[in-house]
Design brief:
The chain contains nine helices and 15 strands. The strands form two sheets. Strands 5, 6, 7, 8, 9, 10, 11, 12, 13, 14 and 15 form an eleven-stranded antiparallel sheet that branches. It has a four-stranded parallel sheet with strand order 2-1-3-4, sandwiched between helices.
Length: 296
C-alpha cells in the first residue's frame, strides 16, 4: 500500500510551540510533494481515539500521532477498534515518550519526512489489558499514580526529572505499603506481597531505559517485572540497579516473559496504562502479536 494521504492527530498541550513549528514544516514538505494532509487537534480525553477511528474509516493511508505516550495510546486504541487498521507514525512530544525513544524515531521534520517517503512499515506486538490496549506498559501500585500527580508546571520546568522527584517523594510518603496479589500465568503462578508490578511491551518505561531489559516489540511476548515487598535498603539497591538493568537479578525481583498473565488482589489496586488511569485489578494482560503496523 502506497502512502498518499496523512492524518495528523495532535495533542496541543504536548510541547506546544516547538511542536507546532515542527508539524507545520512537515506538513509543508508533504503538501509540496503531492501528499494529501489533514490536521486534527484534540481537546479532551478520547478525542484522539475517536479521530483515529474516523481516519481509518475515511480512507487515510497513515496516522501521525503527535504527543506523549497518552496520545499515542489513544490513537492505537482507535486503530485497534477499527475494521480497517492503517499504519501509525509517532512524532514524539510530551515530557516522556518512551515508545518513540525505544523505536529510535526521528525528531526533526526533515528526517520524519524522509521516513514517510521510505514507507518502511513493520508489524509490532500490542498489549491488551481486559478490553483496553497498551503500546508500552501497564503497571500497578506504588509508583503508578506518579504520572497523574506530577503538576503540569513542574513537568514543563523539570521534564523527566519531575517524575523521579515525585517518585522518591511517593516512596517516602507511602511508607512502603505493599499489596497482596495472586499471579497466574503459564510460566509463573503464586500469591505474593509486592510493591509494584509492570507488564511491558518495550524496555523503556517512565524514562528508565532498562526497566524491562529484555523486552522486544517483535517477540510475541510481554515482559513481567514484579518487585516483591522489600526493606528500604533492598529497594534502594533495586532502584540503583534499574539504571543498568541488573535489578532483574535481585532476589526480590521476579522477571519473566509470557503471552498472558492474570493478576488479582483483595486490595484496591489502580492500573496505569501507558501513563493514564486504566481501571482496577483484577485484570488479564495479554499480547496481540504483530497487532499494529508502525512506520520506522
Amino acid at each position: 500500500m502506497e502512502i498518499k494521504s496523512v492524518k495528523f492527530i495532535i495533542n496541543p498541550s504536548s510541547g506546544r510551540q516547538m511542536m507546532e513549528r515542527k508539524i507545520d514544516a512537515l506538513c509543508k514538505m508533504l503538501l509540496d510533494d503531492g501528499y494529501i494532509v489533514a490536521k486534527y487537534f484534540t481537546k479532551k480525553k478520547n478525542d484522539a481515539m475517536n479521530e483515529a477511528q474516523l481516519s481509518c474509516k475515511a480512507g487515510f493511508d497513515l496516522i501521525v500521532a503527535c504527543g506523549g505516550d497518552g496520545t499515542v495510546n489513544e490513537v492505537v486504541k482507535g486503530i485497534m477498534n477499527s475494521s480497517r487498521k492503517i499504519p501509525l507514525a509517532i512524532l514524539a512530544s510530551g515530557t516522556v515518550n518512551d515508545f518513540a525513544k525505544y523505536l529510535n524515531l526521528p525528531k526533526t521534520a526533515s528526517e520524519f519526512f524522509k521516513m514517510i517517503k521510505r514507507q518502511k512499515i513493520i508489524n509490532i506486538d500490542i498489549g491488551k489489558v481486559n478490553d483496553d490496549y497498551f503500546v508500552n506498559v501497564a503497571a500497578g501500585d506504588l509508583l503508578t499514580n506518579v504520572g497523574y500527580q506530577v503538576p503540569t508546571d513542574m513537568k514543563a520546568l523539570l521534564g523527566r526529572m519531575a517524575y523521579y522527584f515525585e517518585g522518591i517523594k511517593e516512596l517516602t510518603q507511602q511508607n512502603l505499603d505493599h499489596i497482596n496479589v495472586k499471579i497466574n500465568s503459564e510460566e509463573y503462578s503464586n500469591q505474593e506481597d509486592i510493591l509494584l508490578f509492570i507488564i511491558s511491551n518495550s524496555s523503556s518505561i517512565g524514562g528508565f531505559k532498562k526497566l524491562a531489559p529484555e523486552a522486544d516489540v517483535l517477540d510475541g511476548l510481554l515482559d513481567v517485572v514484579i518487585i516483591k515487598k522489600s526493606a528500604i535498603t533492598d529497594l534502594a539497591n533495586i532502584f540503583i540497579n534499574i539504571l543498568t538493568g541488573d535489578h532483574i537479578n535481585h532476589p526480590n525481583v521476579i522477571y519473566y516473559k509470557t503471552k498472558e498473565v492474570f493478576i488479582e488482589s483483595k486490595n484496591d489496586v489502580d492500573i496505569d496504562v501507558d501513563g493514564e488511569y486504566g481501571g482496577k485489578l483484577p485484570a488479564k494482560f495479554q499480547v496481540i502479536p504483530k497487532g499494529l503496523k508502525i512506520l520506522i
